[in-house]
DNA sequence: GGCCGTCCAGTACGGTCGTACAGGACATAC
DNA sequence: GTATGTCCTGTACGACCGTACTGGACGGCC
């Protein structure tokens, strides 16, 4: 029980790291297994479909995102601040999160009926909260720019403490939305 | 000659589009072939290693990036503006470009001795021009945030005219660097 | 002792990938 | 008409992927 729990968490940790570095598709079960010192069948034993590994890694972030969406935000700035906090807090899995969020609907149906597809249903809601309904061209662009900045800014600064990343990221995120001519 | 040239450009166009949507690794030769109405062997005939397809697609952008790096920029703002112009102009291939640029060095050696790895040598130069040498934590984060905003902002607004994207993108890019407390 | 469930390795299977090779349709040159 | 080169298909190969199945090592329980 204890030992098995250990390997489970070790697998999760290794997978989280590899997924963050290479992305979901580019990380094989054999890679994860090698990082933990097991065979790929052992990994498959603990997480039967590969999707479940990602689902379990994503699970706490997904829950928090749901709570974040349900919470009322007075202004868009408030929502942006909450979004930045979310991205920084879950920066180790945000690449995985974004892969589901921004993936093409046409390609790779995320495995037919997979649980990972759940996140994709968030997308419209997140994006609507961010840019409003039926946004203009410029607003839509800024929405994606913000999401891109959030992902890369957090992923590429894993070595920095969370507080520092959040402060800097918040500044950049607000700057994107700010009307430079005074708004 | 004419017909063969046609299929070559048609393959390039389809590949450019699919690479932009799904990324390099997630796009198979069969996918590209299906989009053009050929078999994957026909595609392989025109572009012998798959790398060459990406290399040929990336080639003009790579040349322009070299020119951009060689050109003298008075201020960092000037360089940022040039960078935004580059990203918008080559938005159809910027995802491919970024894949090479930001890829992990450890994983997937981009095919041993591949030509695609050339772009990766740009990275240090681009990043240094962007954030200076030995940048602080916040500056480094903003650099990556800018690159992320550039990529997503341009890729996800393919339906908008170039001028509009450039104007909005330039605004966001400058905002990221702006010191909100007046700088 | 025997029994059973957990944890993991070994093996094998179907599928997809990029690629190599052989052959055919077709136009052009001689 | 025959030869030559280009353009493309069909087939096949090895490598890798995720997964199913079998079996063995180990520990707790009766």
UniProtKB/TrEMBL annotation, chains A, B:
Residues 5-65 form the HTH tetR-type domain. It comes from Nonomuraea deserti. It comes from the Bacteria. This is TetR/AcrR family transcriptional regulator. GO terms for molecular function: DNA-binding transcription factor activity; transcription cis-regulatory region binding. InterPro entries: Homeodomain-like_sf, HTH-type_TetR-like_transc_reg, HTH_TetR. Keywords: DNA-binding, Transcription, Transcription regulation. The keyword Electron transport does not apply. Residues 28-47 bind DNA.
